[in-house]
Write a structure and sequence with these properties.
Blueprint (H helix, E strand, L loop, with lengths): L16 E4 L2 E4 L2 E2 H8 L3 E5 H13 L6 E6 L6 H8 L4 E4 L2 H9 L7 E3 L6 H10 L3 E4 L2 H14 L3 E8 L21 E2 L3 H8 L5 E7 L10 H19 L6 E3 L18 H11 L6 E4 L3 H4 L3 E12 L4 E5 L8 H5 L5 E3 L9 E7 L8 E9 L6 E4 L21 E5 L2 E6 L4 H5 L14
Parallel strand pairs: 4-20, 5-6, 5-13, 6-7, 7-8, 8-9, 9-10, 9-11, 11-12, 12-13, 15-17
Antiparallel strand pairs: 1-2, 2-3, 4-14, 14-15, 14-19, 16-19, 17-18, 20-21
Helix pairs in contact: 5-6, 8-9
Length: 439
């Protein structure tokens, strides 16, 4: 069930969406003003928050040989990716489409890592031709396919082998990736043999290992456990005379969505784990942060259509829906929801289910949430929507895809226009036997 909350809370967060004179701003721009210009619903991202989060994360490893490769799947808008590229970020991609996005956004090819369990021949070919930094191989069949492709192109593929360490990330089952029953990576007990085999294969140059155990981790212990296992594998590989020049330590550091009872570990605490475990590693460390960079840098703004008094509860029906932000319906995820105009702190709170217009009971953003009294036309802001929001959106129910807006200080720009219903219909066509009007 989607988590409830008993009262409006304002957890301490480091972002640039704050009330000023009772109006919620994105940096220096009123979200109401953006709504008047672009309509609702829409996503708004803060440049200052993106930049701050990147710098704090990267700064946790000062003095170490590291590269931060932003996980494009978290928020793949090219303007967001370019914002990070200008700070020196590389990119972690998991599809050929994301590879094209990263290159279009200005990420140098030699700072791109390609992960994922199902890379196609075309995707591997494009990655090799682009000259990316490395491909994270997740199975022996993929390794063999990559060798064949590299030989045919007369190229050499730098590869890291993704280790499945069989570590429980203690996160939601659908975003846990490091247990033995998950589809990701090579079983940790078999990595040594695969690595040795790869050194004899044409077109393949093994460079290291990769590990990623899941997303939204709120405890550093699973990171330590996974990294200790990787460190042991490195020791065995090197003892066997095999070259290990870099390690991809993945991402997954969790953030507060407004429901955390206490402070979550941040980049500094995570950095301490990395320094502790890999103090003696004489190579480069790569990281793939996504949510921790983009999550709190974005909001989804929606307008109340109706207030409906049900038999047992009140519904605030809004114009955003599960196709725009799928996390609550997919993961039972909590998102703090606040009004765009700050309510009097003495105003009574009422319980609402905030729901969308889609023909699914699962189209629900929260249940029994205490909010100030709402009315049709009010703007609501769904916080911490910068990661896995627009990137996972769909056009279910033939709904227009919402626009994305990037704010920088006192200006904003539409960085993805609204994909209208006519745009969706125009992607489709009748076959010849249906092309004529019926008699």
């Amino acid at each position: 069930m989607i988590q409830n909350i008993r009262a409006v809370t304002r957890p301490r967060r480091m972002d640039h969406f704050q009330y000023r004179d009772g109006v919620l701003l994105a940096e220096g721009v009123s979200l109401e003003a953006i709504a008047e210009e672009v309509g609702t619903p829409f996503y708004a991202y803060s440049t200052a928050t993106l930049e701050r989060h990147y710098k704090v994360f990267a700064g946790a490893f000062d003095g170490m040989d590291t590269m931060v490769c932003y996980s494009v799947k978290a928020n793949s808008n090219i303007a967001v990716v370019r914002t990070l590229a200008r700070l020196g970020a590389g990119a972690d991609v998991v599809s050929g489409g994301e590879l094209k996005r990263a290159l279009a956004a200005g990420i140098p090819a030699d700072k791109i890592v390609f992960s994922g369990v199902g890379k196609t021949v075309r995707e591997l070919t494009d990655a090799l031709k682009a000259g990316i930094m490395q491909i994270n191989v997740e199975s022996e069949p993929e390794l063999e396919a990559l060798s064949t492709i590299a030989r045919s192109l007369g190229l050499e593929a730098a590869v890291a082998f993704r280790v499945n360490p069989d570590i429980d990330a203690r996160t939601h089952a659908k975003i846990s990736t490091g247990k033995a029953e998950n589809k990701f990576g090579i079983e940790w007990t078999g990595v040594h043999e695969v690595y040795r085999k790869a050194t004899t294969m044409a077109g393949i140059r093994p460079v290291g290992l990769a590990v990623h155990i899941g997303s939204q981790l709120t405890d550093t212990a699973p990171f330590r456990d996974a990294y200790l296992r990787v460190r042991d594998i490195v020791a065995m590989l090197r003892a066997d005379g095999l070259n290990v020049e870099r390690l991809d330590l993945g991402g997954g550091l969790g953030i507060s969505y407004g429901d955390s009872a206490g402070l979550l570990p941040g980049p500094a605490e995570y950095g301490e784990i990395v320094r502790e475990v890999f103090a003696d590693f004489d190579g480069q460390l790569l990281f793939e942060p996504g949510r921790v960079i983009a999550g709190n840098a974005g909001v989804l703004v929606t307008r109340v259509i109706y207030i409906k008094e049900g038999a047992t509860r009140n519904f605030a029906i809004v114009d955003a829906a599960m196709n725009d932000l799928t996390r609550p319906s997919l993961y039972d995820a909590f998102h703090e929801i606040v009004p765009a105009i700050e309510a009097d702190n003495k105003a009574p709170l009422l319980a609402y289910d905030v729901v969308g217009p889609i023909c699914e009971t699962g189209d629900t953003f929260c249940i029994d949430r205490k909010l100030p009294a709402l009315a049709a036309g009010d703007l609501l802001v769904i916080r911490t929507a910068g990661a896995y929001g627009a990137a996972m959106a769909s056009s279910y129910n033939t709904r227009a895809m919402v626009p994305e807006v990037l704010v920088r200080e006192k200006e904003f720009s539409v960085i993805r226009r609204r994909l209208e219903v006519d745009d969706l219909i125009n992607l489709e066509a009748f076959p010849a036997w249906l092309s004529n009007n019926p008699d």
